Amino acid sequence: MTSLKHRIPVRLRQNWKLVAWCAAFLAACCGVFGSGTIRPYVTSAKTAEAGTVVTNLTGTKDLFDPDVAHDVRITFTDAAYQDMLTEFFKDGEKKYVEADLTVDGTRVPSVGVRLKGNSTLMGLTWKGQAKQRRVPAGERRPEGLPEGFRPPDGMPPPGQPRAGRDGGFGGGFGGGGGPGGFGAQLKGEEPENLPWLISFDEFVAGRRYQGHSQVAVRPASTGSAAMLNEALGISVVGAAGEPTQRSTYSAFTVNGRAAAPRLLVEYLDEGYAERLGDGVLYKSLASGSFTYKGEDQTEYTEDFKQVNKVGGKDLQPVIDLVKWVNEASAAEFAEGLDERLDVQSFARYLALQNLMANFDDMAGPGKNYYLWYDLDTGKFRVITWDLNLAFSGNAESGARDTTRTSHPLKEKFLANAAFKQLYEEQYRALYAGLLADGTAAGLLDGLVAAYGRNEGADPAKIEEEARTLRAFLETRTRALGSDQAISGP
């Protein structure tokens, strides 16, 4: 017995009462709670932000200054790049590669870079193989549409105009000035043309560049060298007074290959949320829905992703909104929406998506939007995101036309007479201040000039895209000018 006693560590023998108490407490917990899983959710403000800024690189130029030339250079090993593509073609995993980055002469070592996008990457080929995406059993998906998307009856493939009007709300495919975005012709052998996400803090915690933890580099394809339609969409949203992303053109080089201007876009990261104010930013995921699934927050991991205040706030505000929108009667919705949502801003959001003929908005297959929850007002605001299909729909569609895709919040809002009137009031103001007075055309001219300042610019190619967009704006202005929702009382 004595020899057995001395085999027990001294520290354990000295604290045997505490150990016995802990064992008894755990046994009691097992008896009370059984084998059920306890899921902790933090709803009170935390003392320290998970994304604490340690280093904020200032650089030599404002990254999104459109009045100067920019230069972005990325270098990574061929082995790391091959491994990244292998993972992506195998299971769709977008793995970060460690790379060295130089931005306008400022070297930033050990950044993370990965492929970005869903539908944009569907046309990617590598070593003669095309990236295949899984289609659910029994479902046929038109080429280029996101996985899991079931097209509405009568919707044509991308690039083909819709016939007639159906009396609802939204935009339409076809006849537009943009590249369409779906099924872009991209090759793994040409990394300088791929869509990238640059992360400044993936491998160096707490590092930002001019307040940004991430920056997106939009793709270049045969359909569009400059993504001019997306750049114009971003500018138009900003001119309307709604939250938007900063963007500009920059010469872009990967591993010393030929440089060409690419569109850089501000990513909606922690820094972006800080500039919006005191609140929580949530990203809608392409894999998700706006469906109430109960109070278990783990059930919403494929629907929304929290961007900031992680660990201090959680998904509960979004769950509350989703539940209320889906379960509220028409009368309850009309009476209570203003307590939960900035309805003026939302009316402008919907009007802008239609005015820009953007098929892939919050109700589109990509579910492209963010939700901003203001902690001071307790209200949500819908934020535009991913405008690669802006100005690429039917330029003659009306303010009340739809693509037949839906979103519960959008659908209920436009089904209410008072909110529909607010939508049309906002639409008329936007039409007058963006299209009729030439503001959008002026923004387009500025973007063409910004593109031309950078190394590798192709004036003929950008002017071809600009001509198509100018024609789209002219047609859109004329069509909406005679639309009863715009010209009527």
TrEMBL record:
It comes from Actinomadura luzonensis. This is CotH kinase family protein. Residues 166-183 have a biased composition (Gly residues). Keywords: Kinase, Transferase. It comes from the Bacteria. PANTHER family: INNER SPORE COAT PROTEIN H. Residues 129-188 are annotated as: Disordered. One of its GO terms (molecular function) is kinase activity. Pfam families: CotH. InterPro entries: Spore_coat_CotH_CotH2/3/7.
